[in-house]
Write a structure and sequence with these properties.
67% of the residues lie in helices and 0% in strands. It folds into two domains: 53 residues, no CATH class; 61 residues, no CATH class. It is elongated and about 55 Å long.
Length: 139
Amino acid sequence: MAQPGPRPVEPASGSLDRLTAQSQLDFELDFFAKLLSHVPGNADALRAHSNNLTLKGRLRDGMEIDQKLIALKPRDPLAHYNLACSYALLKQSELAIKTLRRAVELGYRDFRYIREDRDLDSVREDPRFRQLINEFDGR
């Protein structure tokens, strides 16, 4: 009796089709959401997920993730910087400047990037922004 040849593997309910049609950003959004459902305190995953949400235009969702990251790592200057950017993108100038100040107080020192970061455009002309840069960049 002849052995049947190998059968072709069929994708499970169109998942392969869905995967090939999905953008890299959407793939990462799904990936990090699932990862965070299993390990909600993973700081690296939170940071990546927040960035992806912001890139997708889901600014409030990104801000909420940034706030979770601050709760997890309250002395992390990059976490505060990213939250300041989220506030600025949401046109919450007061919170953006206050949080940016906290990031710098905690040690964030990339002033060249602060000056160029498009996320901060809504606060760049604020006198408190210029004061903050002048106060800390000369140190």
